[in-house]
Predict the 3D structure of the following.
Amino acid sequence: MRVARAAVVVVSGSFLMNVDYPVSMRLRGRPVLLVGAGSIAEARALDLVAAGAQLTVIAPAASAGLRTLARAGALRLHERVAIDDDVGGFDLIFVATADRSVSESIAAAARRARVWVNTADVPDLCDFTLPSVGRRGPISVAVSTSGTAPALARRLRLQLIESIGARHAELARVVGFLRQRLPAGPRRMQLLGEVVDGDIGAALLAGRRREAFAALRRKVGRFESLLADTQAGSRRETRMRNRSSTQEQA
């Protein structure tokens, strides 16, 4: 199925709205600030800690869950009111507070510091929005409405994640293992496509693991044999070119 891509949605020749650019961020080891300590902030904190961020939380009164994470060393917690100067030194900032004035103040300070900021439930103050995310092992399903209808995004995400099971997660892990083991290139790309879309993937998703892995071993063996032949041919060509060059110089 082909998906049309466009920078904007166009209706009757006029621009209706900009769309967000979807991206998955790798935050391991990166300093992140979270302002707020309610239920939304705690959910944000759990996701950021799971992503490996070096998280700092600032809020006048932290939840029990955030205090537990702080005692465990998973984040740094400062129980006080956030001020504009707090934004320095962070790669990303999240604001999750019911106080609009705090959201506006921190968002403005973040922009002056050229740091991207997300403010929960205030999309007009956001440099980026957060999709509704569901996970099955290494598979993540994210649905975004660009901040316009979070409840709809959650509903669609629940519907989509129900269609993904443990066998899909196993197939993803198998492909991930092959990507690490086999050298990159068009042949590997073709092989991985055949594994996912062909009989091997179908057998694995149907629960026929023995059949799937037997076929996979045969296919990988043929791939490695072809790769070895190709590399040997390249080495022969290199030796012939080198001999030819030596003879010409002589």
